[in-house]
Design brief:
Helices cover about 40% and strands about 15% of the residues. It has about 160 residues and is α+β, with helices and mostly antiparallel strands. It folds into two domains: about 5-70 and about 145-160; about 75-140, no CATH class. The strands form two sheets. A three-stranded antiparallel β-sheet has the order 3-2-4. Helix 1 crosses helix 6. The mean pLDDT is about 90.
Amino acid sequence: MSQSEHMTTWKDLHERRREVLQTIDGEYDYDDTFARSDVDSHLGDDDNTTTRTLNRLDEEDNYLNRVATGGGPLLVAQREQGEDRTASRPPAQEDLAREMVNEENLPLTPENYDWAEDDSRNAFAAEFNQRASNTTLRPTWTRNRYELVEGAKNEIQQED
């Protein structure tokens, strides 16, 4: 049985879900993956979607596949010179912070922060960023990533 046989019929989709799917269809191919923020960049400044909408298009309507589940903390070191670096687990984030402190020759002590706590990670990054000249630390989170299921483009384009 094809995936499209399990999809909610186009006319039964909420208008907002149709709008989001039309945007996705216009911007992405089957083999492309995207996150909510990627879709938002094509919707316009005041017309953002939500992770909940994308999850429902996956779980309830079967137009999308969630191919990666987000929710884990990341620390990104964005460097003016050299490659950006990322670390995901708290001990690796602390190690990355220590490396960047040493590289920037700053009087900060990453060991004094709780890398498992979001507020603590943010506080360290803010203090680091005020003092650093060549690197910016950005605490963030991994994101859910989605792709269109086989047959979704046909359903969407038939109704355009």
